[in-house]
C-alpha cells in the first residue's frame, strides 16, 4: 500500500530538496501567522470604526473601552484618540500586507522548484480555499 497518488514516480530526495521543503514549511508557518495578524488588525479596525460612529452620536461626554479599562472624556477628544489608533493600525496593516506578498513570492518560487521535481507527490498548497 502506497501513500502516494497512483502513477506517481518515486523520486530520490536530496539534501538540497530537504532544505527547500523545510524552507517552504518555515515560510508557510510565517505566512499563516501573518494572515492571522492581518485578520486580527482588520477586525480591530472595524471595531474602532464602530466606536468612531458611536462617538459621533454622542453629545458631550462619553466613555471609550480600551482593553479592560474605560476612558471618559469629551466625545470629540475620544474620537481623535480613535482616529489616531486607526491611522496606526492602517500602517501596521500595510506592513503586514507587504510582508505577506513577499512571503507569497518566496512560497511560489519554492513551489515551482519542488513541484517540478516531485509533481503531486508533495502537497505545497498554502492558501485556504
TrEMBL record:
GO terms for biological process: protein folding. SUPFAM superfamilies: Prefoldin. InterPro entries: PFD_beta-like, PFDN4. Residues 86-113 form a coiled coil. The keyword Chaperone applies. One of its GO terms (molecular function) is unfolded protein binding. Belongs to the prefoldin subunit beta family. This is Prefoldin subunit 4. It comes from Hexamita inflata.
Amino acid at each position: 500500500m502506497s501513500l502516494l497518488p497512483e502513477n506517481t514516480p518515486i523520486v530520490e530526495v536530496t539534501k538540497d530538496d530537504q532544505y527547500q521543503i523545510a524552507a517552504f514549511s518555515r515560510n508557510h508557518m510565517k505566512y499563516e501567522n501573518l494572515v492571522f495578524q492581518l485578520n486580527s488588525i482588520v477586525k480591530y479596525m472595524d471595531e474602532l470604526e464602530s466606536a468612531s460612529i458611536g462617538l459621533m452620536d454622542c453629545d458631550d461626554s462619553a466613555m471609550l473601552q480600551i482593553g479592560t479599562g474605560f476612558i471618559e472624556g469629551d466625545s470629540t477628544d475620544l474620537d481623535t484618540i480613535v482616529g489616531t489608533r486607526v491611522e496606526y493600525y492602517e500602517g501596521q496593516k500595510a506592513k503586514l500586507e507587504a510582508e505577506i506578498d513577499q512571503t507569497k513570492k518566496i512560497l511560489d518560487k519554492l513551489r515551482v522548484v519542488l513541484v517540478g521535481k516531485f509533481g503531486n507527490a508533495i502537497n505545497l498548497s498554502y492558501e485556504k480555499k
